[in-house]
Amino acid sequence: MTRGSSQRIEQRRNEIIDACEALYQTKGFREVTIKDISQETSFSRPSIYNYFETKEEIFLALLTREYDGWTQKLQQVSRQKGPWERERFAQALAHTLDGQEIMLKIQTMNLYEIEENSRRECLVSFKRSFYQAMCAFDDCLGTYLPQMEEQTRQEIRFAFFPFLYGLYAYAHPTQKQLDVMEEVGIPSAQMTIEELAGHCILRLLPEKRGGK
Fold this sequence. Notes:
Layout: H1 3-24, H2 34-39, H3 45-48, H4 55-78, H5 86-95, H6 101-109, H7 111-116, H8 120-144, H9 150-171, H10 175-184, H11 193-204
């Protein structure tokens, strides 16, 4: 495969992913179809199947791209020189989730179904990106506290990453959910994604010995 053809394939894949992302801004996962996506691109529905076998694979590619973007933000934090004050570090990590609503929404609402209906190679590609984000998160922890033990990093990681899977739903409840919560007396969080993430991170981070 020539460099030019590889670039064309990548451009077309990105055009499909961009169309999927745009539709997901206004439609639910189940409402978005391959036909809808094709109508937002410059080529036909059958042509999409040259790049993705299912709608779920397109969403998985979108999620992969979102994780790659988050990894870059985490790497920017890890490159900053310390020492970090605990609250400021928690805010910096939480701030990396700004603009990552699509990532959080997909994995909160639809990830299980998407993974089940995607080919193994697509899932492997996503898991690699997920793992890179995890490693970048670990690097950030090392920047905050270089002597942090691996066991402590693992405990923070295994608490924070599962937390991310429910973060979007807490920050963006539907009006129906809010009405029912009010009816039964359940207080709503009324916090942004960044606020919720910062709150969680701050409580997971160990205190530095000898002060902040």
